[in-house]
Design goal:
Blueprint: H1 3-13, E1 17-21, E2 27-30, H2 32-37, H3 49-52, H4 57-69, E3 80-86, E4 89-97, E5 103-109, H5 111-146, H6 153-184, E6 193-195, H7 197-207, H8 209-214, E7 218-222, E8 230-232, H9 234-250, E9 257-265, E10 268-275, H10 282-285, H11 297-302, H12 309-319, E11 324-329, E12 333-341
Parallel strand pairs: 7-9
Antiparallel strand pairs: 1-2, 1-5, 3-4, 4-5, 6-8, 9-10, 10-12, 11-12
Length: 347
């Protein structure tokens, strides 16, 4: 196999755009990835890059490169890297002069990398923000006690209760962060087994009964009849149901109701957690399962939420091959639903 054929085969399979320009910035070669990236036809050889990609950041980068570095292919011209934003896509562009006055462009789509980078930055900012408030409170009340406030027994007890409240909130946040991190990095494998999901839901609801009673909220369970077993991780599913019921109780005004329904839905079992709470605006529903996303940030923190519970729910259910979603209207309540696959021997 000849060298030219080998090189062509390589560039054809590369997931990096490759384009070669002559000394007049006319196209000598463009590989399939480059053509696909800009929805171009293959008959662009001999045409100007300005004509093909008019008004794009790539053309501006090439023109700037040629203007500032002198003639293409001259000794003083070195390779140059640029970052280009085209619409909603980010590209890493490397321009490399070669012999004979030609210019090679290597274009890599780094949109996903940019998204991950943005998520990481948001994550660090959110964690810092979530920790700053309780830490500031703990420090402030501790300093007051150390400066003599401890001599007043009533003040001491009140401040210690506040310190305990904020330290508990921090503990829950760190615990949820660790759980979410382990789930997302696949360091917490699901231990699946046939489960009676109706029995699990009833057991969890019993554990949260006092929380509901304290607000005068009635929790009712409809476990249906002859619900087949599902394939799931008992510990993780308990966490899912706890998070959904806990949210339903927190965001339902005193005297409201929470309904949990377990029913077979074709080849799945579906669980619905319905409340008569404050509901979720339509504009927030699409983001409700994101980490740290809150509809009402002040209210959520006041109620002790970490902003991670629904993200954990989503990852667990998806990790078990199920689906999770929410239907809600402001002041009308919400219905959080998830499905689980039937156990292999379920009928």
């Amino acid at each position: 196999m000849k060298e030219d054929a080998i090189l062509k085969s390589i560039t054809n399979e590369m997931q990096v755009g490759v384009i070669v320009l002559d000394k007049d910035a006319l196209i000598l070669y463009a590989n399939p990835f480059f053509l696909d990236s800009f929805s171009l036809k293959s008959d662009i050889k001999g045409r100007s890059i300005d004509e093909i990609l008019k008004g794009t950041g790539i053309v501006r980068a090439v023109k700037s490169f040629l203007a500032t570095k002198g003639s293409v292919g001259t000794a003083e011209t070195a390779a140059q890297d640029r970052e280009i934003l085209e619409g909603k896509r980010y590209f890493s562009l490397r321009m490399v002069p070669s012999e004979g006055g030609s210019l090679m462009l290597f274009l890599q789509d780094v949109t996903e990398e940019k998204k991950v980078e943005a998520i990481k930055k948001d994550f660090v900012a959110n964690v810092s923000h979530e920790l700053r408030t309780p830490l500031a409170s703990i420090k402030g009340y501790s300093e007051t006690l150390l400066d003599g406030g401890i001599d007043d027994k009533d003040t001491t007890l009140e401040f210690l209760r506040i310190i305990d409240k904020h330290s508990t909130r921090m503990s829950h946040l760190i615990e949820d962060l660790l759980i979410l991190s382990r789930i997302e990095s696949h360091q917490m494998p699901m231990v699946t087994e046939p489960l009676d999901i109706a029995e699990l839901v009833i057991s969890v609801a019993e554990g949260l009964k006092k929380q509901g009673d304290d607000k005068g909220i009635d929790i009712s369970i409809d476990g249906g009849s002859d619900i087949p077993k599902v394939l799931g991780d008992k510990v993780r599913l308990e966490q899912v149901v706890v998070n959904l019921l806990d949210n339903a109780i927190k965001y339902t005004p005193a005297g409201g109701k929470v309904f949990v329904t377990v029913a077979r839905d074709s080849a799945e079992v579906r669980v619905d957690v319905k409340d008569t709470g404050i509901g979720i605006p339509a504009m927030d529903i699409a983001r409700i399962f994101e980490r740290f996303y809150r509809v009402d940030k002040a209210r959520s923190r006041e109620l002790g939420g970490t902003g991670l519970g629904l993200a954990i729910v989503k990852h667990i259910i998806q990790g078990l091959g199920g689906r999770v979603w929410v239907d809600s209207k402001p002041a009308k309540g919400s219905v959080f639903s998830f499905t689980l696959n039937l156990a292999p021997d379920a009928t």
